Design the sequence.
């Protein structure tokens, strides 16, 4: 026992590793067992009598089932003291006329090595971490050579955890040690501890494996003291360690691509068809780190139904840019430029579910769900957002006769999409050059889908037009362009004179969703053979 530290004496027995106080005893008291000291004038008996004068709780009757004794005489250090307990039944008879004897050895108050603080948090739903606390160089010194029992939990401080009607369990079950490389030092016995203690550079708390994270209160600090004893049962040193449950925030690895959000809030995406009625966009193209625990959801007003839905990655999802997992999905009708929902900004929220790691929280129960980046998403019509400019404006002079053909070279037409990527209005495929019209988002399908509009008119006045795709030939065993793609104009009027007039080429592009998108190319001037 430790000098100046109370120890408890109680009567009962252990049942299934739990102490059960005796219910038949009315009361008891503890006294010095002088008979165990030998002769009446022995030095041991004289010493015990001296100690007895200051032992708190000695010779005091208790009816509470237990009593605390405190040895305060410094001369008792390293000495054995024998005690005897006398108990009385409820009927007044002695439980045991001879009493029950026990002895203790008195040690110094144990030195507190240090207090170490650890935190318990989560890197992801699948990975939790208890931090390591560094240990000073001289903490585990020469005293470890006297250790017979190491890492023994003490009664106080000793925080517990409890869930529902379960029995309380220790919050911190043990200590774990690590070397300078933060590799675990396995200690299975006192001799292990004595031989390996010099290598200890870090210490960490061990949570109770008989419970799970939901037993621990969010943000709470749990503390447990551990003792180190010599072979006489004396407490040599104590070490106190704490464990604070820190609830994780949204994972930093789940984030939009750099610069992908316009003004930091707007995501514009160009989806592909998904069946006959829906469109879908694979989020791996614009977002890092999406896992099966990640969810994208439209923020809804009361009674509003979601237009945008989320297709999760699933258990076996990979960073595939075209498998449409994870993805945002919507009705294709919102891609119709005539629709009321065209170019609508849908407010979105990203969440991450760490699973059941929380104390009970209303609505979420034990789940811990955190919010990430809020943003607006627009489902863009790719063809609608394409823009064009002439490298050099076409030079067009009306021939003043019908049936005359003229060519406008479309390689001189410079197109780009909303992100600035190059766009062509035709498809070309050679060994050196391969591209698809409107990057596979649309095509000019019909001869009537190109018009030549003059002035403010809405009809073809002077020409019919069609897109002529490139033709190819073989050159030195290679496929090369023979006749480049061009717009072929055929005159329809005999008019031969007039003022120069603004002229546009109007494209009617059928997009992949089945909608007709009208694109007017930049205007240029058409001249007549003679001026009025």
Sequence:
């Amino acid at each position: 026992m430790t000098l100046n530290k109370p120890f408890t004496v109680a009567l009962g027995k252990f049942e299934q590793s739990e102490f059960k106080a005796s219910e038949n005893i009315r009361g008891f008291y503890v006294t010095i067992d002088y008979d165990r000291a030998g002769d009446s004038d022995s030095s041991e008996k004289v010493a015990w009598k001296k100690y007895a004068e200051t032992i708190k709780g000695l010779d005091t009757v208790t009816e509470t089932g237990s009593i605390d004794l405190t040895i305060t005489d410094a001369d008792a250090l390293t000495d054995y003291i024998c005690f005897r307990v006398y108990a009385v039944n409820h009927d007044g008879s002695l439980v045991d006329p001879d009493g029950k004897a026990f002895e203790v050895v008195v040690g110094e108050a144990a030195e507190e090595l240090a207090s170490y603080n650890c935190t318990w948090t989560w890197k992801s739903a699948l990975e939790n971490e208890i931090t390591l606390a560094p240990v000073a160089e001289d903490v585990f010194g020469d005293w470890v050579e006297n250790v017979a029992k190491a890492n023994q939990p003490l009664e106080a401080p000793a925080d517990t955890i409890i869930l529902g009607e379960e029995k309380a369990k220790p919050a911190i079950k043990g200590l774990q040690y690590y070397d300078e490389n933060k590799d675990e030092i396995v200690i299975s016995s006192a001799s292990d501890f004595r031989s390996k203690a010099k290598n200890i550079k870090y210490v960490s708390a061990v949570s109770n494996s008989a419970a799970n994270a939901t037993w621990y209160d969010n943000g709470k600090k749990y503390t447990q003291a551990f003792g180190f004893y010599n072979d006489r049962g004396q407490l040599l040193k104590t070490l106190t360690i704490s464990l604070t449950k820190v609830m994780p925030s949204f994972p930093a690895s789940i984030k939009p691509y750099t610069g992908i959000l316009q003004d930091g809030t707007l995501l514009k995406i160009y989806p592909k068809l998904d069946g006959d009625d829906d469109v879908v966009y694979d989020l791996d193209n614009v977002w890092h780190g999406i896992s099966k625990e990640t969810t994208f959801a439209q923020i809804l007003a009361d009674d509003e139904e979601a237009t945008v839905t989320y297709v999760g990655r699933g258990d076996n999802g990979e960073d595939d840019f075209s498998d449409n997992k994870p993805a945002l999905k919507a009705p294709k009708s919102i891609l119709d430029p005539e629709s009321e929902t065209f170019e609508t900004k849908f407010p979105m929220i990203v969440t991450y579910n760490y699973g059941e790691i929380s104390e009970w929280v209303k609505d979420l129960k034990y789940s811990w769900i955190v919010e990430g980046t809020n943003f607006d998403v627009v489902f863009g019509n790719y063809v609608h957002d394409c823009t064009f400019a002439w490298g050099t404006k076409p030079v067009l002079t009306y021939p003043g006769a019908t049936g005359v053909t003229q060519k406008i070279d479309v390689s001189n037409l410079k197109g780009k999409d909303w992100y600035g990527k190059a766009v062509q209005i035709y498809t070309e495929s050679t060994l050196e050059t391969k591209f698809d019209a409107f990057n596979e988002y649309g095509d000019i399908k019909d001869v009537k889908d190109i018009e030549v509009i003059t002035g403010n008119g809405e009809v073809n006045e002077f020409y019919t037009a069609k897109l002529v795709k490139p033709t190819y030939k073989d050159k030195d065993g290679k496929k090369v362009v023979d006749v480049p793609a061009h717009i072929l104009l055929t005159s329809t009027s005999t008019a031969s004179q007039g003022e120069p007039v603004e002229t546009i080429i109007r494209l009617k592009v059928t997009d992949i969703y089945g909608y007709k998108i009208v694109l007017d190319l930049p205007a240029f001037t058409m001249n007549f053979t003679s001026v009025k």
Notes: The longest strand covers residues 346-361.
